[in-house]
Amino acid sequence: MITSRNIVKKQRVILRPDSHRVVGQFFNPGNPERMHTIARRIAALTEIQSAHLIHILNRDFGKRHRFYQKMIQQHFNSFVKLFPEYELLPVNKKILIGAYLSKEYSFESTALMNPSMVYYDQHHRKSPSVEPFLLSLRAVGEGHISSVTFRSGTIRTDGSIRIEKKSMWASLPEEIIYPAEPGAPVRIRFSSDLPPSEKVIFPLTADECNGIEDVRLVRFINDNGSVVYYGTYTAYDGKVIKLKLLETTDFESFKIYNLQGAAVLNKGLALFPQKSPVNML
User: Fold this and answer.
1) Radius of gyration of the chain (CA)
2) DSSP class of 103
3) d(Cα 222, Cα 228) in Å, to the nearest integer?
4) Distance between CA 49 and CA 46 in Å, rounded?
5) Is residue 79 exposed (0-12), middle (13-18) or buried (19+ Cβ within 10 Å)?
6) Which end of the chain is flanked by fewer CB atoms within 10 Å, N or C?
7) Helices 68-80 and 91-100, interaxial angle, to 10°?
8) How much is the pTM?
9) Cα separation of 10 and 124, whole Å?
């Protein structure tokens, strides 16, 4: 195990934003009637025209997303909730509607900054000479909207740091569950086979629509010895800031809470990694 006797050395490890990495999002052209107009035009295409357009889409966009087909199917599902009559269309036209109601967002095209680091042994490979870690980063994209992304790496006994190569893809959560009652958390879940660098937590609610800023991760040890990871962050809607809390045990499933109280009035909030004794005199 790496001990406090080791000397920390400045490393020439530089993380740069990559404008080529994008996430796929549902595209709302302004109102439901405009979506309806797009769908009507697609429904009027011949099967030959539909097949040709799908070929172009797969060629130009299929390799830019790990789950491209699944993504556009989800976007069609969001559309058909408003217009269920389109459920009867042929498969190719459903795919086209989902694709036309999809957009790409370059989530780290502007900046990559403000990291925090925690010990995290993702693969459970204990080694006396290597300490694995997970790094959270504030990614600033188009329109100066911030989201959270991750990197993994190791620190060795000689003080050297190794950051694992980032994925060429980026993915949003595959499941988002909004609370049914006040005070309950938003729950999100990523696909279990994604590497950390591929996961992006994008603003999910109106009070953070202009950004999730500066996550401060901490590895928290409970009284029973179990470990949970918390991350306080600033939610910004363009006018007002709020403090929120990420909670996870595996960086796959997360709970997101609103924080309240006198201690959460400004952006400088962070947590201690363990509960303090009751009597501290």
Assistant:
1) 22
2) E
3) 8
4) 5
5) buried
6) C
7) 90
8) 0.90
9) 27
- Token readout for 245 is 């809390």
- Whats the size of the chain, residue-wise? 281
pLDDT in tens, the chain (281 residues): 444 555 667 778 889 999 999 999 999 998 999 999 999 999 999 999 999 999 999 999 999 999 999 999 999 999 999 999 999 999 999 999 999 999 999 999 999 999 999 999 877 667 778 899 999 999 999 999 999 999 999 988 888 889 999 999 999 999 999 998 988 999 999 999 899 999 999 999 999 999 999 999 999 998 888 999 999 999 999 999 999 999 999 999 999 999 988 878 778 788 888 776 655 44
Q: How would you list the strands of the sheet with 212-221, edge to edge?
A: 175-177, 186-189, 253-258, 241-248, 227-236, 212-221
What's CA 81's distance to the chain center, in Å? 25
d(CA 20, CA 216) in angstroms, rounded, equals: 26
Residue carrying structure tokens 């609103």:
258
Residue appearing with tokens 């795919």: 95
Distances in Å between the alpha carbon of 38 and those of 6, 43, 48, 69?
A: 62, 9, 18, 19
Sign of the four-CA dihedral 114, 119, 125, 130:
positive
Give the position of tokens 């997970």.
134
Q: Would you state the structure tokens that stand for residue 159, as one six-digit string?
A: 């003080």
Which tokens sit at 180? 């049914």
Is the dihedral angle over the CA atoms 79, 84, 87, 89 positive or is it negative? Answer: negative
158 contacts 148 by C-beta, under 8 angstroms = no
Residue that has been written with the tokens 């996430």 in this structure? 23
- Give the DSSP letter of residue 200: E
Q: What are the structure tokens assigned to 9, written together?
A: 């050395």
